[in-house]
Amino acid sequence: MTLGDGIRLIVLSAIWGASFMLVRIAAPEFGPIPLIFVRVGVAALVFLPIVLRPANRALLRRHAGVLLAQGALNSALPFTLMAWAMLSLEAGFTSLLNATTPIFAALIAFAWLKIPLNRLQVLGLLLGIAGIAILAWDRLSFRPGGSGWAVLAVLAGTMAYAGASNFAKVRLAGVHPLIVSGGSLLGASLLLLPFTIPLWPAEMPSPLSLVSALVLAVVCTAFGFFLFFDLLTRTGATAATTVTFIIPIFGILWGALFLGERVTVQMIAGMIVALGGTALVTRVIRRREILP
Known about the structure:
There is one protein chain. With 292 residues, the chain is mostly helical. 81% of the residues lie in helices and 0% in strands. It has helices at residues 3-30, 32-51, 54-62, 64-85, 91-98, 101-112, 119-136, 148-171, 177-199, 207-235, 237-259, 265-281, 287-290. α2 runs antiparallel to α9. The longest helix has 29 residues, at 207-235. Residues 288-292 have low confidence and may be disordered.
């Protein structure tokens, strides 16, 4: 990886880490579904010049149903679940739980696609689950005022992301990633529109929430996807795995700096264990690197 690619990776991680902070700011005033409609709808508009090129329209029509399903799994469902969860959960904490997505992706690939797991990957899955337990053990209260349902919503969102990555491998292999992104964002917008209209806030959100929503859509979603796929082209799988480990660092940093969120020993311990498990699952750490 070149210095330029490293800088791109840090910028992307900072952008995607900031998305949790922006959702935390805007969700209370917009409501989860209207906010995510703005997020995916505006981002889809950014992609329209690419998606609607004459050479791409046939692809869009041919894969319309699949792109709609991908939009539900990769955007509409997880974004909405996490926005709802962040009505009560901190941005940094949510970004940590979100970083376990590769663990669920490996489990789904094993169960659905029959992709085998080696012993270190199985150990990584167990460590990842242990990390989640450390992070969430004192938050799983389902009494009124508890955050148990919010934690489960975030984990359900990470499972949706994981399912989307495996679904795309099976049903959208060979389709250019930017077409997949633009088409699925358009599909997510269509899915959310009927729910957004009756839930649109009666009062105009504050300027801070409006700016947060637009930055979330244009910078974190549209530009973030462009930057990510540029990195994939340059570095291959390195970007996809490395960004997983850096995003929660920025998620915690932005939450602490701008929202006054506390960083606890429990969070740090859970992050170390969960990301260690993720490193094993994604084969960032391999057998030959830890055994003579």
